[in-house]
Amino acid sequence: MANLTIVSVDDEYPALQLIQKYCEQIEDVELLKVFQNPEEALEYLRENRVDLVILDINMPYINGIELLHQLPYQPLCIFLTLETQYAVKAFELDVVHYLVKPVDFETFRKAIHKAKDFLQFKNSAELQKKEDFIMFKSNYVMHKVLLDDVRWIQGFGEYIILVTPLKKYMILERMSNFEEKYQNFGFIRIHKSYIVLSSHIGSYDSAHVYLKDGEKLPLGRTYKNSLKAYLN
Question: Per the database record, which ranges form the HTH LytTR-type domain (predicted)?
Fold first, then answer.
């Protein structure tokens, strides 16, 4: 397995020393750089892509959350901090883990292995235009759902509901983001609030799309032509 490349940023040098010590004990991990100055870390990360960043939150000049927002790409992230009040905000950013100092080696090791699993799924999706499953986070838990089990996606502002035969998942993500992320997986927008998997469409008329399982969904006027072109 390829190395998980890491950069760690913490204004406290003993914390960086501990992370370096822990990383040396985990296989397939490469700690590329450590930074006490978050501005220097930001400059480095803008020029160098890494798999994972381990960030403190409260730091001078720029905090860990701001640093993550300013990156031109989205690496995996583990927050390692004394603060507990940012946990909800951190999970909204889709972080791998939120560790509170002091952290023991076994807890750290589990977080790193979780990041490895995320990276494996991410890479497999990027290597193929279409997979038979999708990965997403709902209620702070990563879920793997087969494409054939996705009946439709419905938008509610900042959230979407992913509907399967057995369960509905609420996901903190806008419809447009989901549409862009999975554009090569066979999904098609049929309404401002609905996305379906094209292989599940049985028929359609001027106002509705009928899925093969008998479900009827609304068809927006502005999406009729694109649906017709996609299916024909």
Answer: 134-232
Q: Using alpha carbons, list the distances in angstroms from residue 205 to 25, 208, 209, 214, 220.
A: 61, 6, 7, 14, 11
3-class SS string, 44-58: HHHHCCCCEEEECCC
| Residue 161 CB partners (closer than 8 Å, separation 6+) | 153, 154, 155, 168, 169, 170, 171
Which domains occur in the chain, in start order?
4-127 (3.40.50.2300), 133-231 (2.40.50.1020)
| CB-count burial class (<10 Å; 0-12, 13-18, 19+) for 99 | middle
Query: What is the per-residue pLDDT for 129?
Result: 43
Pairing of the two strands 29-35 and 4-9: parallel
pLDDT tens digit sequence for 10-67: 999 999 999 999 999 999 999 999 999 999 999 999 999 999 999 999 999 899 999 9
Cβ atoms 153, 160 nearer than 8 A? yes
